[in-house]
Design brief:
Strand content: under 5%
Order of helices and strands: HEHHEHHHHHHHH
Oligomer: single chain
Shape: elongated
Number of strands: 2
Helix content: over 70%
CATH topology of the largest domain: Ferritin
């Protein structure tokens, strides 16, 4: 990594031709990124896809103007120079990260792309003493800021208030189906189902180490089981619930965390101290479940409270009675 960095050219050492070539390759890369965004969004968010199609076309037009300017000033051969060849040049996220980005994250990234490019060229123009280079960099900065204005114009054309609201609602629904719903199911399963074995062991043995081991095993086992069950139950193609891997991860991780929450206090060697802290953690976990149900699943607060708190209390009581008997 250090060798790669040392082999990069400094921006201030680039010739005007190289700066122009860098701008051309950057415009080409950004055009590809915007088209990739459009393809990813086209099925579920057609209005946003149209915005990115328009932004890609705008990048293409600027690239063509830059190529025409290079042809006039320096001829037909454009030097091969890209962002990764220049130290300190703004970077773009790898394309494979796009698969994990939400609609709002893609919009935010696109805005950042335009701001980064414009800011970089403005700063570079301020640091050069050559008048021609300063003018060239200033023109590039203006072009990038023009892209941002063009993006807003395209949004006004293709993404009206109703379309944006509809796409935001679709994105929120997808987030709930892919992450919140399986995560909530996992948190409920991990928090509630492990109450009985953990507290039964605690009251039966009054041994914090044994209780912790039982809680750890129950939490990890439940997490693995819940994760694989969620992933295998639905491939997401017909239900629209999204990637089974993402859902499995959400369910498995939250199940494990739900159980570990009241198992970890038993790392404390004093039994009653550990047990009281574990009870407090259980209270916090159950109210977190109630809040998530109310916030994301539109479950009335009182109904969610009754279902979760009553259920948790019954399971806890069962564990305490079995362990105490």
């Amino acid at each position: 990594m250090l060798t790669s960095y040392r082999n990069r050219r400094r921006f201030k050492d680039l010739s005007e031709q190289e700066i122009l070539a860098l701008a051309i390759s950057s415009e080409e890369d950004d055009s590809r990124i915007y088209r990739s965004y459009a393809e990813k969004l086209r099925a579920d968010y057609p209005s946003s896809a149209a915005v990115f199609d328009g932004m890609a076309e705008e990048e293409d037009r600027h690239r063509q103007r830059l190529i025409a300017l290079h042809r006039i000033r320096f001829g037909e051969v454009i030097p091969l120079i890209r962002r990764e060849h220049v130290a300190g040049f703004y970077a773009r996220k790898p394309v494979w990260l796009m698969e994990t980005m939400s609609l709002e994250q893609i919009r935010t990234e696109a805005e950042a792309m335009e701001r980064q490019a414009g800011s970089f060229y403005q700063l570079a123009a301020q640091r050069t003493s050559d008048a021609a280079t300063r003018k060239l960099l200033g023109d590039l900065a203006a072009a990038e800021l023009g892209h941002e204005n063009a993006a807003h114009a395209l949004e006004d054309k293709h993404l009206g208030e109703d379309a944006r609201a509809a796409e935001d609602a679709t994105a929120h629904r997808q987030f709930v189906l892919t992450w919140v719903q399986p995560g909530l199911a996992g948190l409920m399963d991990g928090s509630v189902s492990t109450l009985a074995p953990i507290f039964a062991t605690a009251f039966a043995t009054q041994d914090t180490h044994t209780t912790f081991l039982v809680g750890l095993a129950a939490s990890i086992g439940a997490g693995i089981s819940m994760g694989f069950t969620e992933a295998a139950s639905d491939d997401g193609q017909l239900s629209g619930r999204g990637s089974p891997v993402k859902r499995g991860i959400a369910a498995g991780v939250m199940t494990t965390l739900g159980g570990l929450g009241h198992a970890l206090p038993y790392l404390i060697p004093h039994f009653w101290t550990a047990t009281i802290i574990a009870m407090i953690v259980v209270f916090v976990e159950l109210w977190a479940i109630v809040w998530i149900q109310n916030r994301y699943m539109d479950t009335p607060f009182l109904r969610a409270t009754f279902q979760v708190v009553l259920g948790g209390a019954l399971v806890f009581a069962a564990g305490a009675l079995i362990g105490g008997g």
